[in-house]
Design a protein that fits this description.
binds 2-acetamido-2-deoxy-beta-D-glucopyranose; Leucine-rich repeat, LRR (right-handed beta-alpha superhelix); 329 residues; signal; leucine-rich repeat
């Protein structure tokens, strides 16, 4: 039977080992200002408190702590934690298993930090997570399996980063996803089968995929591959000049397609024919639609029983352009 002295020794030894094994320095978090919610929902302000002593709180909000690295087990055994916001802290790296043993964590925000790489094991080990904010970092590289098996994830915000591509391998086994936000990145193309891992958990639910304010010039003809209507696709404020006709053959997958503020001059007759038979809401305002093409659209909408709700206008002043010859004469 171990004596008390032996136990103390054992403890000291494991502390030593702990120190040897943990290269990650969390001393920076030993004195932070934070807002927390206690278990009764009462908010409390803490100044210069040791982060490790916040393990009883439901919501923790830490900003401007200048923590450059999130170490493994940083919130280990924060058993009541439901919401963790580490915003504007200059975090530039996350160790695998940083967020382990947080059985109730539903919302994690690492917004406004300095992350450039995201790997599997950084966030996707938190199976309870429903909302994830990675907004306003410098994310450039996200591994194909970084979000795998996030079975409860509903909303993910990756807006305002430096992503140049999206991967069709992301979001495997993330069956509850409702909102994916890539607004304000540097994405240039949409690859084949980009949305293949997405499907709403209930019929009549839609997944909103936001790619607004990127630099997209190209959509792969094979971008849509399914026959289920589930997608709301926002591609406004990009640089699309045209759309592959093939995309529209699979339009059944899309419920709403937003192409406002691109550089589209006209649409193929074949595309209009697809729109005629599909119930989607199709948005094409603020594009440089040629005046002749605008007339074509008007005639088409008047002559056909359109299934789609088709919203369009042009950045040209066609009325003025039409009057010009008259004025000149
Ligand atoms: C850990 O960080 C603190 C403060 O940021 C610093 O004083 C200390 O030297 C660091 N320790 C190691 C081992 O890097
Ligand atoms: C933030 O922390 C880093 C590394 O610990 C240090 O080099 C830097 O000076 C700190 N910045 C400020 C503003 O305290
Ligand atoms: C952020 O961290 C980097 C690298 O550790 C450091 O050079 C920089 O001063 C930090 N910035 C701020 C605002 O603390
Ligand atoms: C982000 O990290 C880089 C180095 O990794 C550093 O040069 C830069 O100062 C950091 N940015 C901020 C805002 O601290
Ligand atoms: C999805 O992820 C859960 C949680 O990790 C796992 O138990 C399940 O086997 C996975 N399902 C598939 C189809 O991979
Ligand atoms: C096009 O329509 C949108 C939405 O109705 C409107 O905000 C915009 O001002 C219109 N543009 C022109 C050039 O009429």
């Amino acid at each position: 039977m171990p004596t008390a002295i032996n136990l103390t020794l054992l403890l000291l030894i494991s502390l030593q080992i702990g120190e040897i094994w943990s290269v990650c320095n969390i001393t920076a978090l030993s004195s932070v200002d934070a807002i927390t919610l206690n278990k009764d929902g009462k908010s409390e302000y803490h100044y210069g408190v040791n982060f490790n002593l916040m393990d009883g709180y439901r919501v923790i909000y830490v900003t401007k702590a200048n923590v450059t690295e999130l170490c493994e087990g940083i919130v280990k055994f924060f058993g009541k934690l439901e919401e963790l916001n580490l915003i504007d802290n200059n975090i530039s790296s996350v160790e695998k298993n940083a967020f382990q043993h947080v059985p109730k964590l539903k919302k994690l925000s690492l917004a406004v930090n300095n992350l450039s790489v995201l790997k599997s094991g950084h966030v996707n080990m938190v199976k309870t997570l429903e909302v994830l904010y990675l907004t306003s970092n410098r994310l450039e590289i996200i591994d194909d399996d970084a979000f795998d098996d996030m079975i409860n994830l509903k909303r993910i915000y990756l807006n305002r980063n430096k992503l140049k591509t999206i991967s069709s391998s992301w979001f495997k086994n993330c069956s509850k996803l409702e909102v994916i936000d890539f607004t304000n990145n540097e994405i240039t193309t949409i690859p084949p089968r980009a949305f293949t891992n997405l499907a709403p958990s209930f019929q009549d639910d839609f997944v909103q995929y936001k790619l607004s304010y990127n630099q997209i010039t190209e959509i792969s003809p094979d971008v849509l591959d399914g026959n289920k209507e589930f997608l709301i696709l926002r591609l406004d404020f990009n640089r699309l000049k045209e759309l592959p006709v093939v995309v529209f053959k699979n339009l059944a997958q899309v419920n709403s397609l937003v192409l406002n503020s691109n550089q589209i001059a006209c649409l193929d007759k074949e595309i209009l024919d697809y729109l005629k038979v599909h119930t989607i809401s199709f948005h094409l305002v603020n594009n440089p639609i040629e005046c002749a093409c605008l007339d074509k659209f008007d005639n088409f909408v008047n002559d056909n029983a359109m299934q789609a709700s088709f919203y369009y206008n042009t950045t040209f002043n066609c009325k003025l352009l039409k009057q010009m010859p008259v004025l000149i004469n």
